């Protein structure tokens, strides 16, 4: 039994859903990585003058600066969708569209350490020759795991419902 929906509601449901970077998450990340990077750089400068172990700290500081640059780069792309979920499949920022028929496994991974969130990823295993697996870090996106999985469910069911 089909549920009635107005034409406006139906058109909105069929339109692809775009996910953007969250301004608040990126600003918080920029502030956090700025402070942590400055501290790591200061520690590495002091440690390099005392021993060769300071170079390890310098490598860690470089990684933190790389994370800072990622947050700043995200702030410059707030109006560009990062992930688009539609009836065709999932479109990634590099232009790769993985169709619903090509998706073997679709997972939203949420990692934390002692209750502190450390990473969120969308991981897709495909039937394609290349790429076999596609992953995207979605920590700073304005979406929840429930929202992502619900949209993927809705669009993939529509795809398989039309095919059968």
UniProtKB/TrEMBL annotation:
Key words of the record: Membrane, Transmembrane, Transmembrane helix
Transmembrane segments: 26-48, 54-75
Domain of life of the source: Bacteria
Name of the protein: Lipoprotein
Organism the protein comes from: Myxococcus landrumensis
